[in-house]
């Protein structure tokens, strides 16, 4: 699979390598969207090479104390490897989605226009990632290591609270942020241009539309700036639109965003 965006910038950056589980969007998608929206080429290691999964497994190996370039081990994917950008010109390895977003946001001009915007963007991205984590907990409320089928009853309780209390709280918050950002016209969370806060929130909304179609059909009407202006606008942004139509955009699978009929609004 090629990950060369159609409108690739001249190479002014290192050959970024995304290390994430193959075949599903997952948390890797927050990183992919940054590359795609900024027309930055990258390698999606596990999706592009047969043995790429071994690289993912190696950085998170539970007996690892770090790699030969002096990087610490990663707790869990996604991770980003940046050849030549580490200490002493070695490879740099970063992990944790927000840490990677922040690094790339600064390098690729996708993190606002000044220091205040830079921090607001991080705050909003973290809030969207909190919503992502809470979505995960609707189907795995007891244990990440156990099957959904082994925690169906608590999942039902968790999902009900999530739909009834948490979704409107998060959506109401982002609706207010969009309305309050006068230079964003409902299209951007911060300032007058797209940032990784926007792509991160967009991905969570898109996943929720897949996971909870009935609930979202109702909620959409309650938050018009979020769903009638912001969501479709991000989808049409240069780089994102082409990406979503490409084979690089992977279908939702057994990741955070799963559709279980019984967890949706009845
Ligand atoms: N907060 C971390 C969470 C990382 C995470 O949970 N990664 C998942 C895949 S999306 C995983 O493989 N977890 C394995 C584990 O936690 O043992 C981040 O955002 O990067």
UniProtKB/TrEMBL annotation:
<protein>
    <submittedName>
        <fullName>Glutathione S-transferase protein-like protein</fullName>
    </submittedName>
</protein>
<dbReference type="GO" id="GO:0004364">
    <property type="term" value="F:glutathione transferase activity"/>
</dbReference>
<dbReference type="GO" id="GO:0006749">
    <property type="term" value="P:glutathione metabolic process"/>
</dbReference>
<dbReference type="InterPro" id="IPR004046">
    <property type="entry name" value="GST_C"/>
</dbReference>
<dbReference type="InterPro" id="IPR004045">
    <property type="entry name" value="Glutathione_S-Trfase_N"/>
</dbReference>
<feature type="domain" description="GST N-terminal">
    <location>
        <begin position="15"/>
        <end position="112"/>
    </location>
</feature>
<dbReference type="Pfam" id="PF14497">
    <property type="entry name" value="GST_C_3"/>
</dbReference>
<dbReference type="InterPro" id="IPR036282">
    <property type="entry name" value="Glutathione-S-Trfase_C_sf"/>
</dbReference>
<dbReference type="InterPro" id="IPR036249">
    <property type="entry name" value="Thioredoxin-like_sf"/>
</dbReference>
<feature type="domain" description="GST C-terminal">
    <location>
        <begin position="114"/>
        <end position="253"/>
    </location>
</feature>
<dbReference type="InterPro" id="IPR010987">
    <property type="entry name" value="Glutathione-S-Trfase_C-like"/>
</dbReference>
<dbReference type="InterPro" id="IPR050213">
    <property type="entry name" value="GST_superfamily"/>
</dbReference>
């Amino acid at each position: 699979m090629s990950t060369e965006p159609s409108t690739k910038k001249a190479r002014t950056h290192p050959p970024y390598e995304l290390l994430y589980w193959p075949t599903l969007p997952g948390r890797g998608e927050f990183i992919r969207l940054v590359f795609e929206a900024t027309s930055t080429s990258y390698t999606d290691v596990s999706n592009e090479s047969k043995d790429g999964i071994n690289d993912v497994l190696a950085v998170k190996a539970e007996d690892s104390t770090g790699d030969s370039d002096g990087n610490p081990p990663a707790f869990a994917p996604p991770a980003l490897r940046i050849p030549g950008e580490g200490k002493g010109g070695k490879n740099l390895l970063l992990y944790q989605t927000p840490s990677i977003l922040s690094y790339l946001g600064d390098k690729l001009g996708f993190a606002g226009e000044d220091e205040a915007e830079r921090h607001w963007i991080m705050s909003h991205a973290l809030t969207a990632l909190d919503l992502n984590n809470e979505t995960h907990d609707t189907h795995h409320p007891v244990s990440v290591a156990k099957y959904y089928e082994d925690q169906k009853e608590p999942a039902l309780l968790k999902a009900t609270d999530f739909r009834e209390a948490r979704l409107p709280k998060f959506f109401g918050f982002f609706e207010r942020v969009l309305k309050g950002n006068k230079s964003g016209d409902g299209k951007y969370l911060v300032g007058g241009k797209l940032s990784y806060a926007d792509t991160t929130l967009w991905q969570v909304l898109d996943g929720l539309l897949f996971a909870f179609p009935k609930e979202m059909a109702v909620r959409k009407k309650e938050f018009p700036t979020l769903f009638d202006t912001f969501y479709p606008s991000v989808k049409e942004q240069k780089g994102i639109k082409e990406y979503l139509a490409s084979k690089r955009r992977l279908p939702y699978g057994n990741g955070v965003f799963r559709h279980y009929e019984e967890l949706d609004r009845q």
